[in-house]
């Protein structure tokens, strides 16, 4: 008996431990491509005859289509709900009634703007299990002492209830109601489009009752097509040839949806459009004198249609007036605009889906999925160029929208950002992570064609770095890379996928797919082989972002002559020029000194890659180096030749100062943890060793001074393009001036230096081939 009791006790303990072990990963959710647990299909609720029949919608100044002011349609009129006694249980009822899985939060005090009409519900009390808001206890429908400044709003989850569709409970007022269908798609009909990725022309189909149905084009407008194309990641629509579709419709009888659609053209999502009249009610499911709706969308320049085997090789977000920074995947980021030659940000006051959609379309994407506020995708640097932006949704550029030029009270904590709809390129289906403890880590396995069939295999880890890991995480939609692994013996992976199918991978970090990176192709070379030495990654939804303050460099620069006998420790750490080894100890070295103030504007702390136990001890300076090279300092002549250089190891990464309300977390004293907290900065003062460039051998003249943070990309960041600072420097042999310091991207620096190095005659030889000099420069950049 005791044995049986012990067995039951052990079983119970094991079940609890299993539940706890699974629970620790539940917050990570499931990435795209991983199946969610099966859920029951939606069934329409059965309401009592005495329950008031209402209809709900989300309205107001929305940042996402699944949030907004709660509005109720009752007694032939739209009204609102008061925030008195409203709670998350009431929000849950609202979201479920609208077809969303659950509520995320609720917002009082008309955060989505003031509504109009009667306030239908006040002092609402719900348990969360009601089938409609009308079943919750309240003062009674239409009885309220509230004002519209108390209108309540909700934020619902992105995930829809499987099988949920719009219920036509108010047929006499269907033109006033929102669309809630199960799904929408563009289905390629013509054979010339079926093999193209992305799909950009075909029937518009809605899923209703588990079946795909076409829409009658009787009342279809160009505005409807614009919204559909935007939903699928395309900035605009275009005309198509209707004759071939007429022929196709005659051969195969369409199955039509019962309703028409009425969009104004500036909606970000079809769910924001209104239903038109029931066009098929009197026509027995046919479309008199009409055909199924066809849309033809215009792709952005980076998503031009190609055959499946010929994707574009890289993605470069180069825009003259607007750019996105700090996003984990293509089509998302902090919005930055160029004004008077200087990049700045947009304040999030009044920032909504309309304005965000203008940005997305301008950059070659579709409509906005989300308008983010509060510096959610990292804080920018420089001025705040625009505030209280208001757009109609039809502007060609965000700079055409009305805005308040005064940004008083706005800081970079309020930087606006966007997440845009982008075309489905099918990249996620050709890559997977295998063997990890959770969906965000594992051995990298790719799908390639071998001998006419598709097989899974591993990637050679030789030369595998952070940049390659970044591309993998982006391709899978898992955020940023947190680590790049060259050994994965602790992740078993799929045994059938142990063979190496890709080697020599080198990425710039901007690619949308690992296959776009440079690699060996069919001629593989991987001495260690796959298996335990296959490449692996771990991904994270957030990352740090280091930015150097250029004004501090400019304001603290000076020159010092220092005797050689006082520079022995710096000499041992290679902080002096090579000629220092040839001079006696009683000579002097001329040093260009300055301070560096490095901010972490990202979403997570910046931590050294190496663990504390592997930090290198430097006996002369009596400190540890957590990163051997943290910053690089270079002086270039105006023709691009490097004339002097220096570097700084991270002997102490700590929080020197922080923004108001943020506590310091890292301190180097007593072998403490090193790092830079989000919202804090680390200052390397001008008077510490190696915080200089040795200019003893420099001739008087004009130069370009350049600083690069985290130059070897050892630590993942959300944005490497702002790790470069450039200044103009003038040296007359006795004094030095540093001026025009500013942050600049790597591509801008390389372009400018390249233009300085080569004239048109220098770049090419007589056979129009790259000259050896130019080729050497290009290879150094790679």
Quick overview of this protein structure:
The protein is of the alpha+beta class. It is globular and about 100 Å long.
Low-confidence stretches: 13-41, 166-179, 307-315, 746-782
Which of globular, elongated, flat, extended, rod-shaped describes the shape? globular
Largest sheet: 7 strands, mixed
The portion of residues assigned to helices is 10-25%
The radius of gyration is: 30 Å
Fold and architecture overview:
The chain has 782 residues and is of the alpha+beta class. It has twelve helices and 42 strands. Strands 16, 17, 18, 19, 20, 21 and 22 form a seven-stranded mixed β-sheet that branches. Strands 1, 2, 3, 4, 5 and 6 form a six-stranded mixed β-sheet that branches. Strands 23, 24, 25, 26, 27 and 28 form a six-stranded mixed β-sheet that branches. Strand 1 (55-59) and strand 2 (67-74) form a beta hairpin. It is globular. Mean pLDDT is 81; it is low at 13-41, 166-179, 307-315 and 746-782.
Summarize the SSE layout with pairings.
Blueprint: H1 2-23, E1 55-59, E2 67-74, E3 77-81, H2 88-97, E4 103-107, E5 119-121, E6 153-156, E7 183-187, H3 191-194, E8 196-197, E9 201-208, E10 211-214, H4 222-231, E11 236-238, H5 242-251, E12 261-262, E13 274-275, E14 294-298, E15 306-307, E16 322-325, E17 332-339, E18 342-346, H6 353-362, E19 368-372, E20 384-390, E21 402-404, E22 417-420, E23 431-435, E24 441-450, E25 453-459, H7 466-475, E26 480-485, E27 500-502, E28 536-540, E29 546-548, H8 550-556, E30 558-563, H9 568-572, E31 588-593, E32 596-600, E33 616-618, E34 623-625, E35 631-637, E36 642-648, E37 657-658, E38 680-684, E39 692-694, E40 701-709, E41 724-731, E42 736-743, H10 746-757, H11 760-763, H12 772-781
């Amino acid at each position: 008996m005791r044995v049986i009791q012990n067995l039951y006790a052990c079983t119970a303990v094991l079940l609890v431990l299993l539940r706890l072990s699974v629970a620790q990963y539940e917050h990570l959710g499931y990435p795209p491509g991983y199946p969610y647990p099966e859920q029951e299909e939606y069934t329409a609720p059965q309401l009592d005859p005495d329950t008031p029949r209402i209809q709900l919608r989300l309205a107001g100044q929305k940042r996402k289509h699944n949030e907004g002011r709660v509005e109720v349609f009752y007694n032939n009129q739209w009204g609102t709900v008061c925030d008195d006694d409203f709670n998350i249980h009431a929000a849950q009822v609202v979201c479920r009634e609208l077809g969303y899985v659950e509520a995320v939060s609720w917002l009082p005090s008309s955060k989505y703007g003031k509504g109009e009409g009667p306030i239908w519900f006040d002092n609402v009390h719900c348990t969360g299990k009601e089938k409609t808001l009308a079943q919750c206890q309240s003062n009674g429908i239409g009885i309220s002492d509230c004002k519209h400044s108390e209108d309540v709003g909700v934020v619902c989850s992105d995930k829809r209830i499987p099988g949920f569709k719009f219920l036509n409970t108010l047929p006499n007022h269907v033109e006033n109601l929102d669309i809630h269908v199960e799904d929408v798609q563009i289905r390629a009909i013509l054979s010339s489009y079926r093999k193209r990725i992305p799909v950009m022309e075909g029937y518009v189909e809605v899923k209703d009752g588990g079946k795909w149905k076409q829409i009658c084009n009787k009342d279809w407008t160009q505005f409807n097509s614009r919204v559909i194309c935007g939903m699928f990641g395309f900035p605009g629509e275009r005309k198509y040839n209707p004759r071939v579709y007429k022929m196709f419709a005659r051969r195969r009888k369409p199955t039509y949806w019962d309703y028409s659609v009425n969009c104004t053209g500036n909606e970000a999502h079809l769910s924001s459009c209104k239903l038109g009249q029931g066009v098929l009610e009197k026509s027995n499911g046919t479309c008199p004198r009409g055909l199924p709706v066809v849309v033809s969308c215009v792709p952005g320049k980076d998503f031009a249609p190609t055959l499946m085997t010929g994707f574009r090789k890289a993605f470069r977000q180069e825009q003259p007036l607007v750019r996105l920074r700090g996003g984990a995947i293509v089509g998302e980021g902090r919005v930055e605009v160029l004004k008077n030659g200087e990049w700045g940000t947009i304040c999030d006051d009044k920032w909504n889906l309309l304005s965000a959609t203008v940005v997305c379309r301008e950059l070659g994407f579709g409509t906005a999925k989300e308008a983010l506020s509060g510096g959610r995708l990292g804080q920018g640097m420089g001025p705040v160029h625009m505030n209280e932006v208001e757009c109609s949704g039809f502007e060609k550029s965000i700079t055409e929208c009305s805005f308040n030029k005064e940004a008083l009270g706005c800081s970079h904590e309020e930087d606006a950002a966007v997440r845009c709809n982008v075309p489905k390129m099918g990249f996620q289906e050709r890559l997977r992570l295998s063997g990890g403890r959770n969906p965000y880590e594992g051995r990298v396995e790719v799908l390639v064609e071998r001998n006419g069939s598709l097989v899974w295999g591993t990637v050679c880890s030789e030369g595998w770095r952070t940049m390659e890991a970044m591309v993998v995480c982006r391709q899978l939609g898992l955020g940023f890379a947190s680590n790049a692994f060259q050994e994965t013996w602790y992740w078993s992976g799929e045994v059938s996928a142990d063979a190496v199918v890709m080697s020599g991978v080198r990425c710039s970090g901007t690619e949308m797919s690992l296959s776009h990176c440079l690699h060996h192709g069919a001629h593989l070379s991987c001495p260690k082989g796959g298996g335990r030495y296959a490449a692996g990654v771990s991904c994270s939804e957030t990352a740090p972002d280091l930015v150097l303050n250029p004004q501090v460099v400019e304001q603290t620069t000076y020159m010092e002559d220092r005797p050689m006998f006082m520079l022995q420790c710096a000499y041992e750490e290679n902080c002096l020029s090579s000629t220092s080894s040839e001079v006696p100890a009683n000579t002097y070295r001329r040093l260009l000194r300055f301070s560096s103030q490095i901010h972490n504007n990202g979403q997570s702390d910046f931590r050294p890659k190496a663990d504390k136990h592997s930090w290198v001890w430097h006996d002369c300076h009596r400190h540890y180096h957590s990163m051997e090279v943290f910053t690089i300092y270079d002086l270039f002549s105006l023709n691009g030749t490097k004339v002097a250089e220096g570097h700084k190891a991270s002997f102490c990464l700590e929080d020197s100062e922080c923004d108001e309300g943020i506590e310091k977390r890292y301190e180097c004293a007593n072998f403490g943890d090193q790092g830079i907290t989000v919202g804090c900065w680390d200052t390397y003062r001008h008077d510490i060793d190696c915080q200089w460039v040795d200019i003893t051998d420099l001739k008087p003249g004009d130069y370009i001074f350049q600083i690069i943070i985290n130059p070897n990309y050892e630590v993942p960041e959300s944005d490497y393009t702002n790790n470069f600072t450039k200044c103009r420097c003038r040296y007359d042999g006795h004094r030095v001036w540093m001026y025009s310091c500013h942050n600049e991207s790597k591509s801008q620096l390389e372009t400018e230096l390249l233009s300085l190095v080569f004239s048109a005659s220098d770049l090419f030889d007589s056979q129009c081939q790259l000259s050896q000099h130019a080729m050497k420069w290009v290879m150094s950049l790679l």
